Structure formats: C-alpha cells, structure tokens
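Hi W., the iron/sulfur cluster complex you wanted:
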Amino acid sequence: MSHEQNLILANVKKRDLFALWEKAKAQGFATPNIGLLTDIIACPGGDFCSLANAKSIPIGLAIQERFNGLDYVYDLGDVSLNISGCINACGHHHVGNIGILGVDKDGSEWYQVTLGGEQSSGATGAHLGRVIGPSFSADEMPDVMTKVIDTFVENRQEGEHFIETYNRIGITPFKERVYASRQPAHA
Ligand code: SF4
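Structure:
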C-alpha cells in the first residue's frame, strides 16, 4: 500500500497480468486514475476513528461521484485531494493541492478547505495549503469542489496542472467563486 493509498502488486509474472487485471477490475481495484482528482487520500474519519471531528470517507465518495467522468478527470490532469477528519491530519490535508479538514462546530460536522498545498520534493519544494475561508457542510462539498475545479479550468493555461494555475493566479479567484452565492453562516 503506497502512502497515497494505492495498492502495489509487486512481482507479477507478465503472462499473468491480464488475468490479474480482469480480477482486480471486477472488484473495483483497476480504476486508472493515479494522480488525478478522484485518486483521493482520505483518513478513516468519523466512520472508524474515535478522534474524528467529522467523517472523511463519505466526502471522498461524494466528490468521486460528482467527478465520475474519466475523460474529464484526465483532462484536468494531476491534482491531489487529501481529506483528514481532524487536526491530527492523518490524510495529510495540508499538503494536498486541495485539502479538506473535518472540524467540529457546536457539535456538528463541518469542513474547512485549503488550496495550494504540495508534497513535491521538486524544485519548488513542499508547501502548506491556505484556508480558503469559512467552512462548509457535508452537503455543500461537491458543489464547492465543482466551483474550485471550474475556476481552475477557466484560468488554466495550456499544459498547466492545478497547482501551477493556483500558484500563478493565487487564492482570490477561487475564493470569490466559491463564496459568490453563499450565505455566511459559519466562521
Ligand atoms: S486525521 Fe483524525 S479522524 Fe483522521 S484518522 Fe487521524 S486522528 Fe482519526
């Protein structure tokens, strides 16, 4: 299991590859989306962890359902999305290009979104994401992700990945889009 929560089957004989792929596919383990938006890293969250402020897995599933077109996801290119159910950050949300953190407000589950995180060890190094603004309810999260991705698509230049567009235009266009029609209910 890689730290990005993908399964690695080492030392498979070449002649067995196709049969293995067919069986993996039948079990839902052969989605070719590594490094793409739907290749989400999520901690166990409130479904399995007693420390959680909020659930992580249903948020990831809802986002995967929203972006279920593989061609579209391929066209978006590399973008990392990390979800943690509390500030312990087991989902490494700080270093996701898009990070989601479960927070507790008055006993209910809310989600704080960060943008611009990077785990890259390349020339630009690693960066922590910036909080985009007030948190969201679980129901709002798919729409929030759609607005974030739409902002990227509308501003990207030829060949740019999400993080490159973000680094060029900054957080403001994303923030303006996400909060444009939202009533500020929570800080
Ligand atoms: S980030 Fe929090 S909720 Fe998620 S696994 Fe770690 S301790 Fe549990």
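The CA atoms of residues 132 and 175 lie 6 Å apart.

W.
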